[in-house]
Amino acid sequence: MAENSYVPVPTPKKKREIDDFLTGYWANDVWNVDDPFFEELKPETWNRAKYLNFSMFQEIIKKEIKFFFAKQLSERKISLHSAFTYSTALKHFNKFLHTFYPKIKSMTELEPERSFLQWRTYLINDQSFRVKKDGRLGSSQYEIIFNQLLIFIHNYYDTREEFEKDVWDVRNIPGARYTQNTSDYLLSFIDTPAPFRHIAKRYIKMRISKLSLRTCVEDIMSLRLFLKFIHKIYPHWEDLNDLSRQDMENYLSWYKSYTKGWVNSHYEYLIKLKIFFDYIQRAEYPEAPQKPAVLLLFKEDFPKKPIKADEDIKFVSENVLVQLEENIENIKPQEYIPVVIILRASGWRISDVLALRYDNCLEKTTSGWWLKGDIQKTDVLNHRVPITDEIAAVVKAQAELMEEKSNKDNNPDKLLFARLNGKRKGKPPLRRDTQEALNRLAKDCNIVDDQGNIFHFKTHAFRHTKGVELINSGMNLLHVQKWMAHASPEMTNRYARILDTTMRKSWEEAVKNGVFRIDTDGNPRKVDISELENEDEIEWEYIRYNLDAVRMPLGYCLKPSKVECKHQLNPCLNCRNLCTTPDFIPQYELEIQEVKHVIERGRAQGRTLWVEKNQALLERYETILATLKDGKTHHMAGKKGREYVGEERQNVPQT
């Protein structure tokens, strides 16, 4: 059965709360953007209406609308620019109310679905509004302000339990998963057809306890599209018992046209609909379709999931990173400097960095410093990554500062980054604030990409950059996956492919003016890049930077520099059982000559680690060679370790 339509009632208590809020400048019926009251909110340039006039509305509705704008502005949920943009829309809204609802005493008397259709029809019939070919209005602001007003006022007067409401505030739902570094906290069922609203609510109530707010918002959108389509065809239905494959085929035909150009969403919403069918049947909802879910949606109904190309994964180039490091102290406000430093060092998502706590985010062990926090997307608690002493010092300084300034009122969750006053008191900065600070820095300090254009920072690009760097340094994919807290190795593998792609581009750039070799006649000959690629020879100039390239007696060891190998530096040279005599001097001289050549190549290419490893090998060779040239035998075990001596000689077994 469809739930009874609930109409919230403006109680005396709620009315007093509105009156108490609308004091001072907010009490005026006409707001002037040039008034000093708005100085803090007003941007430097202004190209909108200067007045916001509420005087034409009847008293109670006027207070409700003023309360909406005053509340949203004071909590910074809308900008002053956006608020005054609705000046013209309010004039039309007043005419609309006089035409269709001349006797209403409160906006709660407007039934959302019906009144919205009336409002839209009123606007379309007005000759001054442009209507697109698809029937949509040329400007969306009139529909947006209407929806926002109704949702706000209805939700404000609604005193029911959260799950009974048509708009849920997830902050009031115990166990709901949401990030505090966003200003989005609502789940709205208003646009879900009333006969099916109770089904959607029950399903989302289960989902919000296990999944993120963003996932649930997408769930509602998927259900809304489907249920509105079904409600239009079968307006008398209050359940999905009779849903057929034919109905789904009709929906899929409409859905394909409606979601054209949505790319990822087109696929995701269908998947979510299938999950919905599967679950409500397994959970035995009385409203569930009688036909099994596998007979409603077929595998071939789902379009091929768009796969993001590796080159579309954005990361910050070395050139931009250098410019950022040179100008990082110029980030404004400076409170974002430690955020960027930790973002860069950890490779964590911005939401996870902003969720760090000052009382437990830093850990010191015998192996060094660790950054510790929760990875919300993959639900990894107390995740740790190693950090340098310098990064630890930044985190420690920020933690001490926040601990000193925080109390139970302004920072109850002991966040490492928190607003200590204002509308977001006790919450971290919005994640977009860090990105905006970085892009202001790029503009002010002329941080440019490889093409000379002002670089546009995205905070998630630092995560991709860290993943590529870890692989570049020789860390194996399993360890990179653990560092990044990836749920699967798919994204980690992409970092490896990105590394190969960028390395090839760098190599091609380095040889774009040509590569030359000396032929057998002593003349220089230009070599094609592809010719070098296909040859099975060692091109020392192009050995990967993360490889050691250490000379061995039987070849070269080209292991990643971060991978330990007890066999690399010729373990026989350090073995007490190695016995060598002056007869081997020519071999040692040859080995020394070859190792010196490898060291020269390493120095020419700036391979510090390469040079250090081979230098250690060279010193060991030279030490042994010096012993041999003195006519002595090199054998750390000594004579007693290889021969019978003293009385033992008398008891030598006969062979």
Characterization of the model:
The chain has 655 residues and is mainly alpha-helical. Helices cover 45% and strands 7% of the residues. The chain is built from 21 helices and 11 strands. The strands form 5 sheets. Strands 5-6-7 form a 3-stranded antiparallel β-sheet. A two-stranded antiparallel ribbon has the order 1-2. It has a two-stranded antiparallel ribbon with strand order 3-4. It is elongated and about 125 Å long. The model has no long low-confidence stretch (mean pLDDT 81).
- Give the mean pLDDT: 81
Query: Based on CA inertia axes, which overall geometry fits?
Result: elongated
Strand content: 5-15%
Radius of gyration: 35 Å
Strand order of the largest sheet: 5-6-7
Tell me the number of helical segments per DSSP (H or I, 4 or more residues long). 21
End-to-end Cα distance: 102 Å
Structural class: mainly alpha
Low-confidence segments: none
> How many strand units?
11
Main sheet summary? 3 strands, antiparallel
